[in-house]
Amino acid sequence: MRTLKRGMGAVVIVIALLLTDCTLDPLIAINMHPFITMAKGVTTCIEKANKLYAIDDSMVFWQREGDCMDAAYGYILYGRDPGIVLCSKMDSEAGSGRICACPDSTFSLLFCTMINNLNDTKLGLSSAHSVIRVYF
């Protein structure tokens, strides 16, 4: 009987977390729901990658890659909200141009390190940075 009560308590906690608008990972201080919704909404050019990372509890990095002829990839570093784009690099539908922009140069080195280390679980960042892959 005692085990059943403990199990029911855990179920109630999980249901309560699912009903709230917070991230389920207690290590992430950013509300990831808008980012997850955005990433799930993309259905083309994601055959190779459609990944989200929480960086330093204040930024989100989105990696999108696919087999498209144009716009085959996109890398975007956001602030705490999808409306705050800190840096972006994407394949241009216009052809040969590769668009890369960090309006605030403060983030340029961090962003370049991440896009040059996409196969590393920490995106090439040092232990001074928190990097958490967000699965969806």
Could you describe the 3D structure shown?
By secondary structure, this protein is α+β, with helices and mostly antiparallel strands. It has one domain. The chain is 26% helix and 26% strand. It has three helices and six strands, in the order ααβββββαβ. Strands 5-4-3-2-1-6 form a six-stranded antiparallel β-sheet, with helices on both faces. Residues 8-23 have low confidence and may be disordered.
Categorize the overall geometry. globular
- Put simply, the count of helices is 3
- Provide the number of structural domains: 1
Across the major sheet, the strand order is 5-4-3-2-1-6
Work out the helicity level: 25-40%
* Relative strand content: 25-35%
Average pLDDT, rounded to a whole number, is: 82
List the uncertain runs. 8-23
Oligomer: single chain
Strand tally: 6
Distance between the termini: 35 Å
Helix-strand pattern? HHEEEEEHE
- Helix and strand content put the structural class at alpha+beta
Biggest pleated sheet: 6 strands, antiparallel
Gyration radius over CA: 18 Å
Name its key features.
136 residues; alpha+beta; single chain; 6-stranded antiparallel beta sheet; 26% strand
Can I get a quick summary?
The chain contains 3 helices and 6 strands. With 136 residues, it is of the alpha+beta class. The radius of gyration is 18 Å and the shape is globular.
Write the layout of secondary structure elements.
Layout: H1 2-19, H2 33-41, E1 49-55, E2 59-65, E3 73-78, E4 85-91, E5 98-101, H3 108-115, E6 131-134
